[in-house]
Amino acid sequence: MPCMRRLLLLAAAALLAVPAAAETLLVVRKTDDALDFMDPGSGLRVATVALGRAPHEVSVAPDGRRAAVSNYGTREQPGSTLSIVDLEQPREQRRIDLAPHTRPHGVAWFAADRIAVTVEGSQHLLVVEPDTGRIVAAIATGQEVSHMVTVSGDGGRAYVTNIGSGSTTAIDLVAGRKLGDVDTGGGSEALALTPDGRELWVAARAAGQLAIVDTATLAVVERLPLPGVPIRIAMTPDGRTAFVTCAGSAELVAFDVARRKERGRRKVDVPLAPGAAQRPFAGLAPGSTLPVGLLIARDGRSAYVASTMGDRVEQYDVATLVPLRGIPVAGEPDGLGATHVVPRATCHACTAEPTGP
What we know:
Layout: H1 2-17, E1 24-29, E2 34-39, E3 44-50, E4 55-60, E5 66-73, E6 78-86, E7 91-97, E8 104-111, E9 114-119, E10 124-129, E11 134-140, E12 146-151, E13 157-162, E14 167-172, E15 177-183, E16 188-193, E17 199-204, E18 209-214, E19 219-225, E20 230-235, E21 241-246, E22 251-256, E23 261-267, E24 291-296, E25 302-307, E26 312-317, E27 323-328, E28 333-339, E29 354-355
Parallel strand pairs: 7-29
Antiparallel strand pairs: 1-2, 1-28, 2-3, 4-5, 5-6, 6-7, 8-9, 9-10, 10-11, 12-13, 13-14, 14-15, 16-17, 17-18, 18-19, 20-21, 21-22, 22-23, 24-25, 25-26, 26-27
């Protein structure tokens, strides 16, 4: 018996000595009002946190310990809250009320105490303090359907895409004012900055193109044709490749950033989930599994794609575009994030009451 106990202790010590997973994958489930914590290596769900109505996008804090999720709501019931999620002990820490602003969507946690979030209902970009829930700035875009946001590495400037206006708005976050609008094409939605901050790539889904913006001059320097409803863009950490998900053609497309040329594409070959055709966003591209959510792993080796109508997250090799594994995620997976933090506990129904600003 002592020998058996010693063997068990040795086995436990060996397990503790195994390095933690490189990152935990965060998946927003729109129709299940939840955020899943996934182990990308095993494809297993580690934890689930309940959120507000119809969440869409997620952004992880710079220290990787918390995340912000926009609770967009439905067509009938617009949302007006932002969830702050503890990633170490999975739970919703607080739910920030953004009223009178509605339909929060794009979110970027760009500094320890600052989160940028677009609100389509009021055509604004909000800057929110996560610990107090205070809205520290509300900057009008004056554009229709202000949808996604990205922030420069120094936290000084934000860019907001406006689907309805076919434009991208540049905002000075230090001065709290709008700098101007750039004509980036009909249905401008996805956007990503190159790591050096010199170029902003914008996908215009209705125009079927990518617009490349010089951030110094706010001028479009090139437009690349890309039919198939391009809807999300993500840059590799080295800045060499831009990946785009095309919701209409159900493809993952890779572009050489320096040459501004397509270097490859892969069909996101996922079957439709049962009942997918009846979901609210199925009409965007009927029959497609709608690959939307897109994330490049921190090591730059993997790309994750969320098929919102296929209830799966697919992992691809960045260099070859070869599919590596499929991870089932029910409830219309959409926004994706990642953290180096390993969750300490499993929490399947953690909620928090809404809190005022």
